[in-house]
């Protein structure tokens, strides 16, 4: 609580935001290497053009294909472009539903390529992003895993802002793959409008919980949608007074020292965790909803339990569909088109 009060009392500074991208090399409707490589090229070119030093979180099972060397080379391109790489586990398991020993084995397996690529540059992995933001169903599991992370030089990469980009990503892939330029443009416009609403909501939520706005950590995914929108996203953030910084600088904000002792099944972002610690309410009734037509299209494109898709890392097999913006209002849970989806269907997170 003392740390929380310190964070609230800290002097306001220019608002900063760290951009982080999950599910590298890419999250896509197709496992095509050409599509993956084009997405990577466009995304990295945009980040460099916008002078953004992002952190990408890798699922190394997505490298397991006949063209594995080329996929590994895509990760090297992130480092060559001045970005950082973190561990997002090997196969994106749920810490809530996976025994701790098996989960640790998966996370350890998920650093082999990334650790070697970083070592070749005199660096080591520093960041771990929990799939689904699930940090442990019990205090014992949470503490056990965090002890392992500490022993292996990792810090947890928190999230304090998200824009449900995964709802838009596969419908966008589908439009691009079908050559439907009009639909792709419709999705881009809807995505950017929704992002503007989400950013505004999180900025206000932070002020409500902390009494100020901290440096944010924005969760995105390595998708073609974000690759094609990266310049507009950067403009949108800067128009809101948010300056892109590194993840390391963002978590140096005193807010990230607020105690977070939650243990349970929910994958809450950190504003929700701090609100719990500080006994603050968050206005979930005002949280924006993605457009219904895009939500419906996303649901149609769910790949199901396709072993081939799981092997290549295309689609979102075995990963949960849900927003990181966890809902506190039971009525909203019953009416929200996004949040009522089955938590076992897909790869979000």
How is the topology of this model organized?
Blueprint: H1 2-9, E1 16-24, H2 33-49, E2 55-58, H3 68-80, E3 84-87, H4 100-109, H5 112-119, E4 127-128, H6 139-151, E5 155-156, E6 161-162, H7 165-178, H8 181-210, E7 216-221, H9 224-239, E8 243-245, H10 247-250, H11 270-278, H12 292-300, H13 307-312, H14 330-335
Parallel strand pairs: 1-2, 1-7, 1-8, 2-3, 4-5, 6-7
Helix pairs in contact: 2-3, 2-9, 3-5, 7-8, 7-12, 8-9, 8-11
Descriptive account of the structure:
With 349 residues, this protein is an alpha/beta fold. It is built from 14 helices and eight strands. Strands 1, 2, 3, 6, 7 and 8 form a six-stranded parallel sheet that branches. The protein has a two-stranded parallel sheet with strand order 4-5. Strand 4 (127-128), helix 6 and strand 5 form a beta-alpha-beta unit. Helix 8 (181-210) crosses helix 9. The chain is globular, with a radius of gyration of 19 Å. The two termini are 29 Å apart. Mean pLDDT is 87; it is low at 1-12 and 305-348.
Q: Tell me, what's the shape?
A: globular
**How many β-strands, per DSSP?**
8
How much strand? 5-15%
Would you tell me the structural class of the helices and strands?
A: alpha/beta
Q: Could you estimate the helical fraction of the residues in percent?
A: 40-55%
Please provide a brief summary of the model.
The protein is an alpha/beta fold and 349 residues long. The chain is built from 14 helices and 8 strands.
Key words describing this protein structure:
two-stranded parallel ribbon; disordered N terminus; disordered C terminus; 47% helix; 8 strands; 349 residues; alpha/beta; single chain; globular; six-stranded parallel beta sheet
């Amino acid at each position: 609580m003392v740390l929380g009060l310190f964070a609230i009392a800290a002097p306001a500074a220019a608002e900063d935001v760290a951009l982080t991208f999950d599910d590298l090399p890419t999250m896509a409707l197709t496992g095509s290497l050409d599509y993956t490589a084009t997405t990577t090229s466009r995304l990295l070119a945009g980040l460099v053009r916008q002078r953004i030093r992002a952190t990408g979180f890798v699922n190394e099972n997505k490298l397991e294909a006949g063209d594995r060397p080329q996929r590994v080379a895509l990760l090297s391109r992130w480092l060559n472009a001045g970005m950082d790489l973190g561990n997002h586990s090997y196969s994106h398991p749920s810490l809530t539903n996976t025994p701790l020993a098996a989960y640790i084995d998966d996370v350890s397996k998920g650093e082999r390529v990334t650790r070697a690529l970083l070592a070749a540059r005199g660096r080591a992995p520093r960041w771990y992003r929990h799939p689904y933001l699930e940090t442990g169903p019990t205090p014992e599991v949470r503490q056990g895993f965090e002890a392992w992370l500490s022993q292996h030089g990792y810090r947890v990469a928190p999230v304090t802002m998200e824009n449900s980009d995964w709802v838009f990503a596969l419908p966008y892939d589908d439009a691009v793959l079908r050559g439907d330029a009009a639909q792709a443009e419709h999705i881009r416009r809807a995505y950017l409008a929704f992002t503007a609403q989400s950013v505004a909501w999180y900025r206000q939520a932070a002020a409500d919980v902390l009494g100020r706005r901290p440096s944010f950590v924005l969760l995105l995914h390595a998708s073609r949608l974000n690759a094609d929108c990266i310049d507009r996203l950067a403009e949108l953030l800067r128009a809101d007074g948010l300056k892109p910084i590194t993840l390391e600088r963002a978590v140096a904000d005193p807010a990230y020292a607020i105690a977070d002792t939650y243990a349970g099944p929910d994958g809450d972002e950190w504003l929700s965790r701090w609100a719990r610690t500080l006994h603050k309410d968050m206005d979930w009734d005002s949280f924006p909803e993605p457009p219904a037509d895009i939500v419906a299209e996303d649901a149609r494109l769910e790949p199901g339990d396709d072993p081939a898709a799981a092997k290549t890392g295309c689609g979102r097999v075995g990963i949960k569909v849900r927003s990181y913006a966890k809902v506190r209002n039971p009525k909203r849970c019953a009416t929200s088109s996004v949040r009522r989806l089955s938590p076992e269907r897909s790869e979000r997170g």
